[in-house]
Design brief:
The protein is an alpha+beta fold. The chain has eleven helices and 17 strands. The protein folds into three domains: 119 residues, eRF1 domain 1 (Translation, Eukaryotic Peptide Chain Release Factor Subunit 1, Chain A); 134 residues, eRF1 domain 2 (Nucleotidyltransferase, domain 5, 2-Layer Sandwich), CATH 3.30.420.60; 102 residues, 2-Layer Sandwich (60s Ribosomal Protein L30, Chain: A), CATH 3.30.1330.30. Strands 5, 6, 7, 8, 9 and 10 form a six-stranded mixed β-sheet that branches. The chain has a four-stranded antiparallel β-sheet with strand order 3-2-1-4, with helices on both faces. β13 and β14 form a beta hairpin. α6 packs across α7. The chain is globular.
């Protein structure tokens, strides 16, 4: 995702179209997606004809029309972003909801890509029962790999061969934890190769037993209840992603304490001009943005002019200053956190924690 953001920065020209819209994974609902694309395309073409030079506008319109026929909506995820200018076009499907809109600006809109970087993290789904364990590795999109080598593991010695012992009070639970401890040892080997958060998919009682024996509780992102050994990989990952999303939201919310800490150390900027200047001086550590916060205005060099009426016109007009700030922050190696709007009320929707 970061590579795409860098590519969009390099490919941007004076007139860039970004179409952002929610989509549907299955038929017949995904038939609506073609209609929504065309509606946003018409809106973008009108803006391009008004604000861009004629040769650029004609080239962009031609590409958008071609894409209208070529897009395969049977491959859709939860949302889609389409990027077009006179020399370049690309698209990405995301697993997060978005705000439908058509943007024509001096840069491509990357806010939702940055948000997806936080919410589309790769993870492991540990599918666990008292008889066996398997591990799925899920990456952004629909790509899923079933790990081999360390897994799957069958409980063929500690459980099945000891049925008589397990009939004794207290023995069964102890033997289950022995099996789960064996599973966890193999899981730790997997983490050594690539450390990713783990969603444990199992019954409630098994989850508690596993948490009793795991060596790295901090690696556990959450619990997906129910025995899912007979579910397909896609079915497991689809539900596990929801658990992961809650985990990532919680991590983001926990980071809000950084704002108060930075404010106490005089390492916080909330004036957009000061934020813009600090980022370009390499001082920007973390930008905190309220979900859904947009700010049109004008940008001329290092000077930002906020539009009070929600509109911005003229040669220096920018559809969304927030997108410009996010793009610059990523380019300069900084971090971006999307926060609950109420938590950002005291900062007028955006604040920058500086490095010094």
């Amino acid at each position: 995702m970061k590579n795409l953001i860098e590519k969009l920065g390099a490919e941007a020209t004076a007139c860039n179209v970004t179409l952002i819209f929610n989509t549907h994974r299955t038929s017949p609902d995904n038939q609506q997606d073609s209609i929504q694309y065309k509606n946003l395309m018409k809106e973008a073409v009108q803006k391009v004809k008004t604000n861009c030079e004629k040769p650029r506008a004609e080239a962009i319109e031609k590409t958008l029309l071609t894409l209208a026929d070529d897009l395969d909506h049977n491959r859709n995820a939860d949302s889609m972003l389409v990027f077009v200018n006179e020399n370049f076009h690309d698209l990405v499907r995301l697993d997060i909801p978005v705000e439908d809109r058509a943007i024509v600006d001096r840069t491509f809109a990357v806010r939702d890509l940055v948000k997806a970087m936080h919410h589309q993290q790769s993870f492991y789904a540990l599918v666990l029962s008292r008889d066996s364990a398997r591990v799925l590795k899920a990456v952004p999109g629909d790509e899923i790999a079933e790990l081999e080598g360390n897994f799957p593991i069958e409980n063929d010695t500690l459980y099945v061969d000891n049925k008589l012992k397990s009939s004794m009070a207290g023995k069964s639970e102890h033997m289950i934890e022995e099996f789960f401890n064996r599973v966890d040892k193999e899981m730790q080997e997997v983490l050594k190769n690539e450390a990713l958060p783990i969603v444990v998919c199992t019954e409630e009682r098994n989850y508690h037993h596993y948490m009793n024996v795991t060596d790295k509780k901090e690696a556990i992102a959450g619990h997906l209840n129910k025995n899912r050994m007979d579910y397909t990989a896609y079915e497991v990952v689809k539900e596990a992603r929801k658990v992961l999303s809650t985990y990532l939201d919680r991590k983001n919310a926990d980071r809000l304490s950084e704002l108060n800490e930075a404010q106490g150390k005089n390492m916080l900027e909330s004036d957009l001009n000061q934020v813009w200047l600090a980022i370009h001086e390499g001082k920007g550590k973390t930008v905190f943005v309220a979900e859904g916060f947009h700010q049109p205005g004008k940008l001329n060099g290092t000077n930002i002019e906020v539009s009070e009426n929600g509109e911005s016109n003229g040669p220096d007009a920018v559809a969304d200053l927030v997108d410009e700030i996010i793009t610059a922050q990523i380019k300069h190696g900084g971090d971006v956190v999307f926060a609950d709007p109420e938590a950002m009320n005291g900062f007028k929707g955006l604040a920058l924690v500086t490095r010094y």
